[in-house]
Specification:
The complex is a heterodimer of chains A (552) and B (98). Chain A has 552 residues and is an alpha/beta fold. In chain A, 41% of the residues lie in helices and 13% in strands. In chain A, helix 2 packs parallel to helix 3, helix 3 packs across helix 14 and helix 12 runs parallel beside helix 14. The longest helix of chain A is centred in the N-terminal third of the chain and has 19 residues. In chain B, 31% of the residues lie in helices and 39% in strands. The chains are: A alpha/beta (552), B alpha/beta (98). Chain B: It comes from Companilactobacillus bobalius DSM 19674.
């Protein structure tokens, strides 16, 4: 196709947008910043790790273009690629803070987390989201989803947070790809061989009709460049993750007795009667809720027995000047895809509502209330209606709420007595400035189940398990997770279910220590600064950050 | 994945480093770097068992263009034709004045 943007590779895409002669690439192919995690798994690396960072001008405006190469490993985000994006966005933030306006443009052509570097991908993506939220105070952060890969996984959560999303009709946007949903929930939930259904559900035409992208343009370089110039001029912001009442009302009005189809959803979307939703504090109930590690700890830490709430899966309460928040399973939930404690539509929006309220209440206070997240999330919800409505926006809403709370000065501490997996962890956990985990074998920390990772990366489960031996970020257990250096503390000797009075006191003491040690830190940098991170866990990250800083 | 290593006795020094290509399916990236030592080619390829084919493609290239360079190739299953195309493209970049 003549003058097609989609057909271009990442570097050509960035160059095609920039005014001639203004481009400057940073940490490019000649800088030898290759991913250290791919070759040990017998995967051919790329010299730029699939990310092109370019500074330059568009119609005379200073811009930073971050272009993801969708053709290299599906545009997946790993340690080096993620750190490149984070470091560049943070430099752009610094410039904007100092009065030097620079507009960040992110070209998303990505499957999300690079499954071969799973836990690095999750960490990096949360750091990208954090930088985007901070930047939006100064400039719009512009997103472009040209296709062929489109935008999936954790990077779609990022997409939901961006100010303005431009797409072509060659792109799809979703949280979980149809193949993963089929793997996790069965072919009746989502048939990944039904291409029409996929495009009609996840294609940008449908996404435009329901507010998940802001503009769909024909695929030419000129069209895309003009849309960007126009956005720089008008500075529109979709505020996509700030429509919590709208979506909670929409979910109330959803008929869960039958499978949602596109036509009825579009009708519902246009006719939602929006009412204010406050999620009241959890109160003691008469019956035991569905058992989970998250619930046990929440009840013991807040002293609320059989805690119940208007949203049965989202529990929150104030205790001792701290706000505790947990996402818990409900075996009788009306939404079938969250019955095991997954983070679904309602969970994401409800948590966002809770956190936004805490921030609003403390707005004028000098000392902001600490927020303690109790993480026991086996994953995000895998379902057709979840994707049709846009579960990535639900997860983006809670991630954005936590990030804003932290950036406003609330200590945000994540306590992990249970699982912390994938989109669930991005929505409820990874935006915290300190993470405390129990050293228990039952805890899973990962981006995807083994069965799904094997399917997507076209390896056998045996090959996968072999790979986890060489690359800690691929592993599923908390001890390997500790090797990445992101934890504030790995607590030994307390089991996942052992929320005794003594143990609760011990954990509270550790949480208080973490809060005291913050000293005003509102960033996520702690993860790079622990001895383990410096020594081994985030070595490549730190090298990337240094290079970007030098070349900026 | 297989790692391959070749040496060539070539003498035409190159003036600057260049990079072309993408590690996409059926494609490869090529980096030339100036060197004053022997020409070295280091290949990481996703397709195992093609050492001889690589040797032939490279020999033909260097017979024609005896550049002296440190060459790095990351290959994701490209055919000999594509390899030759990318090598020639890198050569074109060397001539590019910008």
């Amino acid at each position: 196709m003549k003058n097609s943007f989609v057909e271009l590779h990442a570097r050509e895409r960035a160059l095609s947008l920039l005014d001639a002669g203004t481009s400057k690439e940073m940490v490019g192919p000649l800088d030898d910043m290759i991913s250290p995690h791919l070759e040990p798994q017998n995967i051919v690396p790329e010299s730029d790790d699939g990310i092109v960072l370019m500074k330059g001008k568009i119609a005379g405006n200073n811009v930073l273009v971050v272009s993801i190469e969708g053709k290299f490993q599906g545009g997946g985000i790993g340690e080096v690629s993620g750190a490149k994006i984070v470091a560049a966005l943070e430099k752009a933030l610094e410039d904007n803070k100092n009065g030097k306006t620079i507009y960040p443009i992110i070209i998303l052509d990505t499957g999300g987390v690079r499954l071969q570097e799973a836990n690095y991908g999750l960490l990096s993506i949360s750091e990208i989201q954090n930088a985007v939220i901070a930047l939006k105070k100064y400039v719009p952060v512009i997103g472009l989803v040209p296709g062929r890969v489109g935008s999936f996984g954790g990077m779609s959560i990022t997409a939901s947070i961006l100010s303005y999303l431009i797409a072509t009709n060659k792109a799809r946007i979703a949280l979980n790809g149809p193949e993963v949903i089929e793997q996790e929930a069965g072919v009746r939930e989502f048939d990944s061989s039904d291409k029409d259904l996929i495009w009609n559900t996840l294609g940008t035409k449908q996404r435009l009709a329901t507010g998940l992208v802001d503009e769909v343009v024909d695929d030419t370089v000129d069209n895309i460049k003009n849309s960007i110039i126009n956005e720089i001029k008008t500075k529109k912001d979709a505020h996509r993750t700030e429509n919590v009442d709208f979506y909670l009302s929409l979910l109330d009005q959803l008929d869960l007795s039958k499978k949602l189809d596109i036509e009825s959803y579009n009708k519902l979307y246009k006719n939602v009667e929006v009412t204010k939703h406050d999620i009241p504090e959890a109160v003691a109930g008469s019956e035991e809720g569905t058992k989970s590690r998250g619930r046990v700890w929440f009840e013991k830490m807040t002293g609320i027995k059989n805690a119940t709430s208007s949203v049965s899966t989202v529990l929150h309460a104030q205790k001792g000047g701290k706000e505790y928040v947990a996402i818990v399973p409900d075996a009788d939930n009306d939404f079938p895809r969250v019955r095991n404690g997954e983070v679904g539509l309602q969970e994401g929006f409800a948590v966002a509502s809770v956190i936004n309220k805490v921030v609003a209440e403390d707005k004028d206070k000098d000392v902001k209330r600490p927020i303690i997240l109790i993480a026991d999330v086996p994953s995000q919800a895998y379902g057709y209606q979840e994707e049709l409505i846009g579960i990535h926006v639900a997860l983006g809403s809670s991630a954005a709420a936590y990030a804003k709370a932290r950036q406003a000065g609330h200590p945000v501490i994540d306590f992990i007595p249970g699982d912390a997996v994938s989109g669930g962890f991005l929505a409820h956990g990874l935006q915290s400035n300190r993470m405390i985990a129990l050293d228990d074998d039952s805890i899973t920390i990962q981006a995807m189940s083994k069965a799904s990772v094997a399917r997507i990366t076209q390896r056998t489960i045996a090959e996968l398990e072999e790979a986890t031996k060489h690359v800690p970020a691929m592993a599923y257990d908390i001890d390997n997770y500790e090797k990445l250096g992101a934890l504030y503390k790995l607590v030994k000797g307390i089991g996942s279910w052992e929320a005794t009075g003594e143990n609760v006191a011990k954990i509270n003491q550790i949480i208080d220590g973490a809060i005291d040690g913050l000293n005003g830190d509102r960033t996520l940098h702690f993860r790079y600064e622990t001895p383990i991170a410096k020594e081994s866990g985030r070595k490549a990250t730190l090298k990337v950050r240094k290079l970007v800083d030098e070349q900026w | 994945m297989e790692k391959l290593h070749f040496n060539f006795d070539t003498t035409d020094a190159i003036a600057k480093p260049v990079h072309v290509g993408v590690v996409a399916s059926g494609d490869l990236e090529v980096i030339f770097r100036p060197t004053d030592k022997k020409t070295e080619v280091n290949i990481v390829t996703g397709s195992d068992g093609f050492k001889e084919v690589w040797a032939n493609v490279l020999k033909r290239f260097f017979d024609r263009y005896p550049i002296q360079a440190n060459i790095e190739i990351n290959d994701f299953g490209s055919t000999p034709g594509v390899v030759n195309l990318r090598l020639t493209q890198a050569l074109e970049e060397l001539k590019d004045e910008k």
